[in-house]
Specification:
- This protein is of the alpha+beta class and about 240 residues long.
- It has six helices and nine strands; from the N terminus they run ααααααβββββββββ.
- The protein folds into two domains: about 100 residues, no CATH class; about 100 residues, Immunoglobulin-like (Sandwich), CATH 2.60.40.
- Strand 3 and strand 4 form a beta hairpin.
- About 10% of the residues have low confidence.
- It comes from Actinoplanes regularis.
Length: about 240
């Protein structure tokens, strides 16, 4: 007999199994089958209330019939503990399947919600007519080379670095001659200027100086170096 035929044959015995109408051999066969067959355990769960329902039916003789009472061998009926154990196993499997299904549903729902939120966020940030524009690109660092004033041998360069509070100025110069102290002036296009640094004379007439200004890097147009008498030694135009 094939496994399919065996399953069908044992499946048809479930009613008798619950009512105790099987002999010991069939009862043992069905016990073993129910241990491994989820379909038959499900059917057993569906049929489980039947014996109790039958107990509440009136006797056939009271209905005018002449059917003999059903004779069941007590030893043939499976024990309540055995039935309850099988049903408990089946219900546990159902609970596990339900839990797994719920987890899969929650995962799918979470992915959907995250995707919807991402799409919604994109709609919000892009509203207002057209695609969003990248922030304006402002140079973080600008390098300007010094040109000597008439009669001066000064050379070097100035490096301007953008800061939140303004601009940092780094100077690297040679050929600085004049009356110390020397001063660095930062000038704007409108003529306003700020002193960015001051330093003394060096034997080699060179200097590496760091200074600063409250002007933004985009506002600075010229860096001018003078001596203490105001004589211009050199200047660098920021482009």
């Amino acid at each position: 007999m094939s496994d399919l035929d065996e399953h069908g044959s044992l499946h048809r015995l479930l009613g008798g199994y619950l009512l105790g109408g099987l002999d010991e051999t069939d009862t043992d066969r069905l016990d073993a089958h129910l241990h491994d067959c989820a379909d038959c355990r499900a059917e057993l769960d569906r049929l489980a209330p039947v014996p109790e329902m039958l107990q509440h039916l009136p006797d056939a003789r009271h209905l005018g019939g002449d059917l003999p009472p059903l004779m069941v061998a007590p030893a043939a009926r499976p024990s309540p503990q055995n039935i309850e154990g099988l049903l408990g196993r089946m219900r546990a499997e159902k609970t596990r399947e339900t839990r797994n299904s719920r987890v899969r549903w929650l995962v799918a729902a979470s992915v959907t919600m995250i995707a919807a939120a991402a799409i919604g966020y994109g709609v919000v940030v892009n509203t207002g007519g057209g695609p969003s524009k990248p922030p304006s690109s402002v140079a973080q660092t600008v390098v300007a080379n010094f040109q000597p004033a008439a009669g001066s041998g000064m050379s070097g360069q100035a490096v301007l670095t953008k800061k939140a509070w303004g601009v940092a100025v780094s100077l690297n110069m040679t050929g600085i001659q004049g009356k110390a102290p020397f001063l660095c002036w930062v000038k704007r296009a409108d003529g306003k200027q700020e002193q960015a640094a001051v330093w003394g004379e060096t034997p080699e007439h060179t200097a590496k100086v760091d200074g600063s200004s409250s002007f933004t890097v985009t506002d600075v147009r010229d860096i001018v170096i003078t001596d203490s008498a105001g004589k211009v030694l050199g200047s660098a135009t920021v482009t």
